[in-house]
Amino acid sequence: MQRYKGIIAYDGTDFSGYQVQPNKRTVQSELEAVLTKMHKGNHVKVAASGRTDAGVHAMGQVIHFDSPLSIPDERWVQALNSLLPKDISVLSVKETVNSFHARYDAAGKEYRYRLYLSAKRDPFQRNYAYQYPYALNIDEMRKASRYFLDEPHDYTSFCSAKTEVEDKIRTIHSIEFVQEGEHLTIRFVGNGFLYNMVRILVGTLLEVGSGDRASEEMPAILEKKDRSAAGKTAPAHGLYLWEVFY
Length: 246
Fold this sequence. Notes:
- The protein has about 250 residues and is α+β, with helices and mostly antiparallel strands.
- It has 2 domains: about 1-95, Alpha-Beta Plaits (2-Layer Sandwich); about 110-245, Alpha-Beta Plaits.
- It is about 20% helix and about 30% strand.
- β9 and β10 form a beta hairpin.
- α3 (about 140-145) packs across α4 (about 195-210).
- The longest helix has 13 residues, at about 195-210.
- The chain starts with a strand and ends with a strand.
């Protein structure tokens, strides 16, 4: 039995998230169905670096699975892509050590959130960027983001009340704002992120940028450890799991 590490990309629009759910279309269920077919009906379980919610996209989700089949790495890519639906793409598959775990070995992640800063409705942006037609002070957003950087913080205020893990301390290494015309991408790199954490950070930073909240409030929001202290949760369709670090 050999363990394989894969990198996949997917358009999250028509998925109910990554993780298998009863009677719902998910990325994991599609992957496992194809692998099971390749293994003549023997179920193959796929583990990922983490879950993504319904509507969230991925450019670099990392998975692993075990297989007794002896197939060259590039043939795995060809075989899987020939059977998978068009909204999932396998970018690479490589043999790895049997102790490798896509989730537990991850040392950090990069997420990107895309905003479409225009009052004009663009049908080609509707599933891939959050349309935000209001004026934004990006300098104030940058100022607010600095309160989160480079040291561990308890992000209870910035995660869903449904978050199951008890340890809510995470370290964000960088938050960058890249504007290209009517598009603003916010890039988050950290050692890990809680359930809805990036989307709540974005929602809060947007409130700062629109003048509804002061940048200096960030330390107090962290200190309260109360979800109601932070801003709204930004929509899922602007979020991309960009890369996982090991």
